[in-house]
Amino acid sequence: MAKYKVCLVEDDPDVGAVVEMILKDYDCEITNIRDVNSFRMLADKVMPDLIILDLMLPGINGFEICQYFRNRAETADTPILAFTGYDSVDNQKKIMAAGATDYSPKPFDIKSFKFKVKKLLKISDPLE
Amino acid sequence: MSIRKKLILAFSGLVAGIVIIAGILFWLGQKGNEYLSTALRAYSEMVTVREIQFSIDKQWKSFNFYLILGETEELNNFNEFNNTVQVKFNEWQLLARDNRDVEAIAKVKLCYNDFYSMATNIIGIYKQGKRELVLVMVDTELMKLSDHVIKEVKSLVEEKNQALQKSQQKMAGLGRMSVTVSIITSIISLVWSMIMSLYIFRSIADPLLVLRTGAKLIGEGNLDHKIVIKSKDEIGELAEAFNGMVDSLKTLQLQVIQMDRMSSLGQLAGGVAHELNNPLTGVLGQCQLMLEKVPPENPMHASLEKVERAAQRCRTIVRALLDFARQKDYIFVETDVHGLIDESLGFCQSDLTSAKVVVKKNYGLNLPKPKISSTHVQQVFLNLITNAAQAIANVGGGVLTITTMVIDKIEDNGQRKKFVVVSFRDDGIGIKKENINHIFDPFFTTKDIGKGTGLGLTVSYGIIQRHNGEILAASNGERQGSEFRVMLPC
Fold it and tell me: Which domains does chain A have, with CATH numbers?
């Protein structure tokens, strides 16, 4: 039984692989939502400690997903780390307004990404 | 010559022609009238003289019949004819034109009167019954007088007849002359009209054809076509105005193409950058994860560091592309341009020192503060200063002159607009003429591989566009230095 449950909403396998490798170090169980179909199947079932959310997914965008999780009672307070390859102040403002807890552009440096993940999972010393 | 002048000339020529023809015809009419009067008078005189001649003939016959037959009726006829002759003489005198006529009439009249008085004397003698004396007097005196009168009158008839014929000949000559003059003047007018019509038609139709062909070619998109019309008339001016319009159109089209290219390249760049970011996250992330796990002494560590550096460079390029694709975080505030330049120079100090650049500042006094996004404009300044430093480094040192000023520019809509101009002029390597039109194109670089992304000026262009300003580049060619001018509206 893993210590943390993380829901990764990301369609790109390369990014998914990197995120999985990072999370592996923190004893996380990962549920990967890759597209609109898997979102429909899994969205109301997952009970994650952290949601990592890409803003662009085939068939649905991250803002809607973010709002969905915020409106769902079980995930209303779950931290959401949004990231995107289309980094802009606009996108950042929009996703934060939709309820995201933090934001990271892609590509990211491992160190800063790890720092954000640990902070959101409330792992004692994020700088460790 | 202008078309207006040509038309005036042609019309004046026609009017002059008409006036000349009318003048000639008027003169001919006057002359004809004069000849006709002369002929009519000659005819009247001739008729009068002939009547005198006939009356004298008949009077002579009546005289002879009276002497032979002794009938009183013949004597009455003789006297009656005398009255007729006298009346005709009076009529003739009325027709007299000059002294010559009067003298001629007087001469004939005198002869006749001599004849008549002699005849009257003889009749008196005849009535006395002296027939032999009468015969002798008739034979010796009266015959002579009679012959003389008749001869005079005949000669006058002949003279008047000749005068009449002469007048008729003159009139006929005048008629022929009239026809000839009419034909010649008509031909001259016709030829003049034809020549002028042809000349004016050609001087309008030919250039119009050139204009039409040119307009068609230009309409088909051939903006390099020049309409060549040599004439300096209204159509020539029209063609010049047309060429001017096409030049403006060409400049405008270039601007539109440039903007369109920038816009579509921006979209493309944005799309590509976004797509690249995912695999790049994979490469950079995996590489950094491996770097954490591979100890530094392992030879793979150095290789992984190279991969990471390359990936970071890719990230920088993609970021620049994204920056170009969407100009972001613009906050327009009134900014001290001189402070911004000085700050930028401070950032580049080490580059400028190593490139042996001497910076000269020609800052304008009381420069207004334009509303700009200072971080973006600073990015442009940094770009231009770095480029200048590299251009100067290539020639082993030189001067970078930074000049600021305010200019008034009249926009296309006729409104005046103030611009703060910042000029960066270096005496470095310069820009090749064939490159000057491409320096703002994305990925265009003349720097060594790895040293330039080819996006610096493109991004600068985008930033200044966002400010509704202009960025212009000029260079006299390779090794002639170059100048970049940033114009910011204020």
Answer: 4-120 (3.40.50.2300)
